[in-house]
Task: structure prediction
Amino acid sequence: METKAKKIDSSKKDDAKAKADPKKKEVAETKTELKTSAKSNAIDKNSGEEFRSFFIDELKDILWAEKALKKALPKMRKAATGKELASSFDDHIADTEAQISSIEQIFELMGEKPTTKKCDAMEGLISESESIIADTDKGSAIRDAGLILAAQKVEHYEIATYGTLAAFADAMKEDKVAKLLRSILKDEKKTDKALTTLALESVNEDASAE
Ligand SMILES: [Fe+2]
Ligand SMILES: [Fe+2]
Result:
């Protein structure tokens, strides 16, 4: 396999040869043209209908995810023992409801209906939280620790999704959409921070002492 360094080296050689031989110069120019057209193709997709429809599909996916989470969070809250953890789930439920409204607003801004598309990743994360509840004792600190872990996995999935969608909205010059996505992203980061504090300050210590 040709290494990157060798490739760079050979392209330098091509350029040098091209200067000496007009035919080689033609080949070198064609190579440059191909590179340029590949680049502009990517830009066309970013601003085109195809990319927009991909973006809408991903919005449908995250709307499904938030709606599924809205149903799952009360079960996680009920399973939690620590008061602070339970109250963090209460905040998360309220945030999720507000986020669903924000996503619906984004659909409106994009001139689309807020339909959903099943998100396999969120389904998996929720099913993992259900396994944690099933595999741990009621009222145990281990269960609380497991719930924090499950909730943080969800947060990190959401943070990745909203961060990238906001960047895509910037690329499509959908400023209002990008602003709403960043405001959801801010909420998700706040929830993640609160969960990290909980993990560090109380539950993990109790769980390891059991
Ligand atoms: Fe969310
Ligand atoms: Fe969240």
About this structure: The two ends are 54 Å apart (CA to CA).
